[in-house]
Amino acid sequence: MNPNVADTYLMLNPRDQWRKENGTIISKERLGELMRKALLDQVPGQNILVTQPIQMRFNEIMAGARADPVCKVFGDCYDELERLAGEVRTAIASICGGGETEFDSIGKNPMIEIQPDRKAMCKFNVHADELNRLVETALAGKEVGTFIEGNRRSSIVVRLAEDRRTDLEGMKRLALRTEDGGMLALGPVAKIVLVPQPVQIAREDTQRRVSILISVRGRDTEGFVEEATNFIRETVTFPDGYYFEFGGQFKNLQKAKARLLIVVPLALALIYVLIFLSFGSLRQATLIFMCVPLAVTGGIFALHLRAMPFTISAAVGFIALSGIAVLNGIMLISFINQLRGEGRELREAVVEGTLTRLRPKLITALVASLGFLPMALATGAGAEVQRPIATVVIGGILTSTFLTLLVVPVLYDWIERKTKPRINAL
Prior knowledge:
- This protein has helices at about 30-40, 55-65, 80-95, 120-125, 130-140, 160-165, 170, 220-235, 250-280, 280-290, 290-305, 310-340, 345-355, 360-375, 385-420, and strands at about 10, 20, 70-75, 100-105, 110-115, 140-150, 150-160, 175, 185, 190-200, 200-205, 205-215, 245-250.
- It is α+β, with helices and mostly antiparallel strands.
- Helix 9 (about 250-280) runs parallel beside helix 12.
């Protein structure tokens, strides 16, 4: 293949952004498509899986697979596993976003197999140890001495030459010693054949498995895995004792989501308790806590606007956003309580407190939004982690700022008029 074929399509600038020759920045997904097209034009019929070396090695170390999601087929018979893996791969490739698939070390290589004939060995009085010793010396090699050169010692190993190691007829004529001291050719007492054997037999939980590496493009991993699971169950029939499951980094995603289902409610409950202890009022604590859903709606809308899936990075952004929204609510409600404690009427305290705190809230929102803006627009290394966090925080702060200034004061005025005033200013 022409080594300069990729140069006709792309070049790399110092900021680690791929550009076309006219200088237009293109995405990594588009880059993968161009590289794949360039390679297939030169070497057609290949399966190309585009990834990054460091990411691939981390996936292999942490999840045992070189791709984010991997479909594992388990069973006993290797031939049946290969057949099922082929059907599963065809099913996955037909799903939107699953066009890039690759087998993980599947296939067979021809290997020399020497099968002893027990009856012939008894007839010619040949011991099994002698046969094993001959095969080991001929193919693996056997140390017969030491070569001394000054202070260096090197082992002398004897074995068949490379061209004779693949000559099956020549191996049948190897001399074999019998128990009574005679000599016999290897052919009469052993069958030497060339048989296909698996390249690698992978095991997991004491069971054989075959893996299909998947590079999901243009959609979220969780949605793809759910659709692929249902489609495989409908189209592929698994015999008894054979089954499949998705693993890789997708498993880590599931574990992280399970942890978040515990951590996030506990964190929100702790925030609510702290607010109640500060204000000593359930209604005001609930009112301040309403800033959280007001902010979350903006984060969800921002993710939808940028066509980003929900990830663990986005979940971390929602947690940070909840804290910022609660602080803004505390700042507003505590100042209104302070004005009422000074003797102001309810409506007057609500209007003046909202207008007075307008500028601090806008400054807080602008500082946080502008601070996260470079992360939201990042395209370099780590951008896939930075963008969801920044997008959620920016979108949530914008909606939280305006909705808090509109909704919370109105609800405060309405709730306090319905109940007996109880002021506990900070």
